[in-house]
Structures are given as structure tokens and as C-alpha cells.
Amino acid sequence: VDVQERHARYYCAYVRRQAVVFGRSSHESGGMAQEIAGARSELDNVRQAWQWALQGHDFDALKETIPALVRFYNHSGQYRQGIGLIDDVLRQLPAAEKDKRPYFLIEKSYLLARAYEGRLAQQEPIIEELLATVPHLTFIRARALAYYSEGLFIDSIDSERSRSYAEEAMILAQQLGDTALIARLHLQLGSLH
Prior knowledge:
This protein has ten helices and no strands. The chain is mainly α. It starts with a helix and ends with a helix.
């Protein structure tokens, strides 16, 4: 078990280090293909570490690792594999750890949006759950509103509601200083006017 714990810690740290690479914008990421290839070569180790962390109920490590892992799955186009890992956690997350659920759900919503080209049907129940249960988690709420707005816009359901959610998300993103979300929302709001 000690070897498994060390392996899990090492590869969870590896994934977090890769977050810097996967979080770069496209103009900064000249070597992104090489970085993804390198991460792909470690994917079996990362998956095994994830499973051992899950078996060891190290939900803190999983929560810290999931944003970086989702970036990898997004950049490599392996959305469904990432969704599967998150579903594994959500199935095994004990009631005592329920405060971590929103962090996994928002990442699942992000991958669902990518897997289904922004269509709202797959992610709407998750977003609605998040908006109803985490008004105090500004980071999660800002992203949930942005994803909801984007889905409404893409599906051409309700442009007025889409604009309203995007504007609310923008206020939260500005409070957080989340420049990536702010830029994304500027583009979206520009399309809505």
C-alpha cells in the first residue's frame, strides 16, 4: 500500500505540474503537441494513480488534481475518458466528502460541453444542481453561469436569459480576477449584442 500511495502522490503532483502547460493559451503553447504526447505516454500511470487515490479515499488529492486532468482530456480530445474518471469519483464520494462534489461536477460539465459541442441537454441538470446548491462558491457559480449561458446561446434557446447569465458570470469572474473566463465571456457577450 505504501508503494501505491507514493505512486498516487507522485502522479497526482505530475498532473498538477502539467496544468501550467495545459492552461496556456494557444499563442503561448508552441510545444503543446509535445507536452500532450508526453502526458499521453504517462496516461496509464496517471489513471492508475487516480484509481489508487480513489481506493485510498484521498479525495483532497483528487480534488486538487481534477482541473489539470480535465485540461489534459480537453486538449487531447478524450472527453469521455475524463467524464468516466469523474463519474467514478462521484459514485464513490462518501457523504462526509460531499463538499467536494461541486468541484467534480463543474469539471464534468466542462467536459460534457466539449464532448457535445456546447449543447446544453447533457450538462443542464449538473449546472442547475450547482446553481441551486453552491451560491457561496463564487468560482463554481461563475463557471456554471458561463456554461449555462454558452449552452443557451449555442442551442438558440433564449438569448435574453443567455445574456443575463453571461453578465452575472462576468461580474463574478471580475471579482475573482479570472482573466480566462473574463475573455471568454467578453467574446460571448459580444456575440449576444
